[in-house]
Amino acid sequence: MLANSNQRAHYLRPLLTTPFFERSQYLVETDTYVPWSGYSTPDVFSSVEQEYFAIRNSASVFDLTPMIKYRITGPDAEPYLNHLITRDVTKLKVNRVAYTVWCNEAGHVIDDGTVFRFGPNEFHLCTAERQLDWFLDGAIGFDVQVSEVTEQIAALALQGPTSCAVLKAMGLAGVEKLTLFEMGHFKLGELPLMVSRTGFTGDLGYELWIAPEGAVALWDKLMEAGSNKGIRAIGYQALDMARIEAGFILPNVDFISAANTVRLRRETTPFELGLEWLVAMEKGHFNGRRALVEEKKRGSRRRLLGLEISGKKPAHGSLIYADKEGNIEVGDIKSALWSPTCKRNIALAMIDAPHFSTAKEFWVDIYVHRELQWDRRMERAWVVDRPFFAPDRRKVTPAGDR
Questions:
Q1: Residue 176 burial (CB < 10 Å; 0-12/13-18/19+)?
Q2: With 60 as the cut, is the pLDDT of residue 273 above it?
C-alpha cells in the first residue's frame, strides 16, 4: 500500500504525462489519448473539425513536450553535427533553426528533425524518436557532449493566423519581428522563455520552450491572452490534417527509419522523399554522402509525390496503378486527406521509377466503407506540387494579427 493514496506507482501508469497535463486534462472531452515517445498525449480534445479550423482560422495550442530533445555542446559541436546531418551547419547562424535529416552510411534516412543554434558551440536537435545511441556512436573522435534533455524542457506549439496576436497580448514585445526559422528570447516572470517561429502546420505559428516549472503559468497566460482570439487546445488528429496539407512527412507513416526496417528495400533516402534540398553535397563528407552521390548519378528507384485524386474519399493505404484496369502497380498512398481548406482530395504517394518522372496521371484503387458494405472505386489521380496549402502569412514579417 502506498503511503500517500494520491501517489501512483510508476508501473500503474506506464506512460508519462507532460507538465501541461495539470491543465489540459480537464479539456479532453473524448478521453482519447495516444502514446508518443513514452508520454500520453491527447488524440482529440472535443472535435477534430473544430480543432482543425482553429489551426486555419484562429489559434491552436498543441503540447510538444514529448518531442525528443538533445543538447549538443563542446568545441567540436559544429563539425560533429556537420558529419551527422545532411545540411551544412556552418551556414546556420546563432538564433536560427533548420529542418534536416540524417542518414546511415547507405544513405537511408534514420530520422528527420530540427536543429537549433544557440551559440558557436551549443545546439539543440529535436527528433521524432530517440536517437541517443546513434548520436553517441557518431560522436566518437569529436570533443563534444551529447545529452537528452526532453524532460528538462516543456514545449507548446501555437499555430494559426491569430498566433502572433496572442503572443503580443501576452506582452512579448517584438515577437512579430521574428522571421521564419528564427528564435527569440523572452521572459515569463523570472523564467526564460524561448520562442521560435517554427511549426508543423504550414501556417503562421510559433513554438514556445520553457522549463517545466513554468509550464502551468505559460498555459494560463496563453489561454488568457487568446480568450478573445479563438484559441483552442488541439490533439494529434487535427495536427495530422494540417501537416498533410503542408506536405510535411511523418516517420512511420510516410517513411520508416532505417534503424527500424526489417525487410530489404524498405529503407528510404532523402532524394526518394523529395528532400534533395536538404542535402549539402558541397560541404564535404557526412554520413551517407558516398551512397547519395551514387544515387544522384544513377537516379532514385522511387519518389514521394503530391497527388490530387478525383472524388472526396481519402485514399488511405491505397495502391496506385498506371492504368484504369489495375494491371500495372506503380506505388502506394502514404498519407491522404480530403482537405477542408483546399477543397481537394490530396495525398502523399510513393511512386516507383520510371513512372514518377514520366507519368502525370495515375489510377488509385480506393475502398469505400458505407453502411457495413465495401465499395471499390478506381479514381483518377494526377501529380501536383506540394505543399498543397501555403499561405503567405506563414512567411510575412512582421507577422500580422490574422
A1: middle
A2: yes
pTM comes to: 0.94
Contacts of 2 by beta carbon, 8 Å cutoff, 6+ apart: 8, 9
* pLDDT one-digit tens code per residue, 357-378: 999 899 999 998 888 898 999 9
Burial 286-325 (b: 16+ CB within 10 A, else e): bbbbebbeebeeeebebbbbbbbbbeebbbeebbbbbeee
Please, where in the chain does CATH 3.30.1360.120 lie? 10-65+153-234
Under the banding of pLDDT at 50, 70 and 90, the label for residue 10 is low
Radius of gyration of the chain (CA): 22
Which grid cell sits at 187? 521572459
The reported pLDDT for the residue numbered 2 is: 44
Is the per-residue pLDDT at 135 higher than 80?
yes
Q: May I ask the CATH class of domain 301-384?
A: mainly beta
**Measured between alpha carbons, how far is 70 from 150 in angstroms, rounded to an integer?**
7
When pLDDT is averaged across residues 55-76 and rounded to a whole number, the result is 98
Per the CB < 8 A criterion, the answer to whether 246 and 202 are in contact is: yes
**In the CATH scheme, what is the homologous superfamily, with its name and number, of domain 10-65+153-234?**
Probable tRNA modification gtpase trme; domain 1 (3.30.1360.120)
- Residue 240 amino acid letter: D
DSSP strand pairing (59-63 vs 231-233):
parallel
Q: What does the pLDDT look like over 228-268, one tens digit per residue?
A: 999 999 999 999 999 999 999 999 999 999 988 888 888 99
What is the assigned CATH class of domain 68-151?
Answer: alpha beta
pLDDT at 3: 44
- 242: enclosing H helix or E strand: helix 236-245
Tell me the C-alpha to C-alpha distance, in Å, between residue 177 and each of 116, 162, 164.
Answer: 18, 15, 10
pLDDT band at 5 (very low <50, low <70, confident <90, very high): very low
The owner of cell 521564419 is: 180
**Average pLDDT estimate for 291-306:** 97
Q: Is 277 helix (H, G, I), strand (E, B) or coil?
A: helix
Q: Please list the residue range(s) of the chain that carry CATH number 2.40.30.110.
A: 301-384
Q: Which residues of the chain form CATH 3.30.70.1400? A: 68-151
Task: Tell me how far CA of residue 130 lies from CA of 20, 117, 294, 318, in angstroms.
Answer: 21, 20, 29, 30
DSSP-assigned beta bridge partners for residue 370: 373
The three-state (H, E, C) secondary structure of 123-180, written as one string? EEEEECCCCHHHHHHHCCCCCCEEEECHHHCEEEEEECCCHHHHHHHCCCCCHHHCCC
